Amino acid sequence: MPQPLLELRIPARPVSLSEARRSLEALRDRLPESVMWDLKLLVNELVSNSIIHGGLGPEHQIEVSVEWTARRLRVQVCDSTPPERFLKPDRPEPSPTGGWGLYLLERLADRWGVEGRCVWFELDVAAG
After folding, report:
1. Which of 53, 60, 55, 65 is nearest to 101 (CA)?
2. What is the per-residue pLDDT across 85-115, written as a single tens digit (0 to 9) for each?
3. Tell me, what CATH number does 105's domain have?
């Protein structure tokens, strides 16, 4: 059964990025340093994507949830943008000015996908 570690609702505005990163610090003692870095980077990218590409105003909320499932960390970032915005490309291709979010998900997450208005990813965490 998944064990919720963190649930966060933040407004869709740029200052919320630092709030999301600060909130993740509560998990630092429970996770290896390398997992912590990947977690913070990927959450930052997904929250940024919601703010920049979602067309959301500051009155909209972004939901971030982190669950512990066996030896996995499962993270979901949800917002109120249309689900078709999250079409998963065959091969993410970043440019000098953007497009790194899906590329980083592809490279760093052990698994990821889209469910409705949520992007999720999983990071495997070694026992210990």
Report:
1. 53
2. 555 555 556 666 666 777 889 899 999 998 8
3. 3.30.565.10
